[in-house]
Amino acid sequence: MKLERLRIQGLRCLSGSDIELGAGIHVFVGANGAGKTSVLEAAFLLSHGRSFRSGAKEALLQRGASALSVYGEVRHEEGRLSRVGLGREGSRWNARLDGESATLGQVVRECAVVCFEPGSHALIAGGAEERRRYLDWGVFHVEHDFLLAWRRYQRALKQRNSLLRSGSMIADELFLPWEAELSQTAEQIDRMRQRYLDLILPHLAASISGLLPELGELQLRYRRGWTDDRPLGEQLADQRGRDIARGHTTLGVHRADWSIAFEHAPLREHLSRGQEKLTALGCLLAQAGLYASHKGEWPIVCLDDLASELDLTHQTAVVAQLYQASAQVLVTGTELPAPLQGLSAQVFHVEQGRLAPLL
């Protein structure tokens, strides 16, 4: 797939950008703070419904603006064109697909973007939430029933947490239907996640071995969020008193996590910061490769500040892989990265939130 058009209004310093894009590699160059990363952020929003940057959601809104919007035209491999849009005025996102009101899930399903950026090492070194997001985005695009199960689970979790915070005098019978729902949907989600991890493992092994061959073979470790010996519903009932004291549910798929262990680096702490970045990059490339094999088209790949995040050897290897796959790639940098010199690439200059094509 590829973005043929990206229109951005009121996102950070981008007040009225309208960009036409083609196949292959696109480079956005300019000084720090010019707005390069915000272009990638706009594409990522259409695919995830959130930013890859940390911080308050209010920071997305351009200073002095009352609303923001991102619109994209996505061309799929079979020739179909999807017109996707997200707008926000206040705290709520409004989604549109082909000119009609839509759910966020419908928009996200039409536009797939993976992004490697300075914070990507958190996928390896950060908290479990980031890894669950990575996992569930992939599962969402492979398992059609995932979103419904996830919404049912979140509703039951919210209801049980509300009961937990109501105090210890709540009758046990009020918990039972929500714990039964949590148990049923958690089993569904867990099976989908495990199937996805089985599918992505060979892609991970191939992508990471090409980036970090010195670490040896890898192994995926997955923790479902509760023990395997009994159904989740029974464990939730036993845990109820402690959960009341904590005020939230401490078992379930919302507590799951996964990690990568290497033959020569069995613990995360054995990895350097550079190795963490390369492992995260390998995970993102593996996810893109699995998406391509399942959907028949590559997702859009964003590489933010490529030259400062990777050494020249790894920059060259990544660019060569994506170029050979004919993926649409959006890259940022203060100047044209060395591996792209001599390749056919469309270059945009970004200055004070304005974009102008150079080549």
From TrEMBL:
The keyword Cytoplasm applies. Gene3D superfamilies: P-loop containing nucleotide triphosphate hydrolases, RecF/RecN/SMC, N-terminal domain. Its main location: cytoplasm. The keyword Oxidoreductase does not apply. It is found in: Cytoplasm. InterPro entries: DNA-binding_RecF, DNA-binding_RecF_CS, P-loop_NTPase, RecF/RecN/SMC_N, RecF_2. It holds the Pfam family SMC_N. Belongs to the RecF family. The RecF protein is involved in DNA metabolism; it is required for DNA replication and normal SOS inducibility. RecF binds preferentially to single-stranded, linear DNA. It also seems to bind ATP. This is DNA replication and repair protein RecF. It comes from Dyella koreensis. The gene is recF.
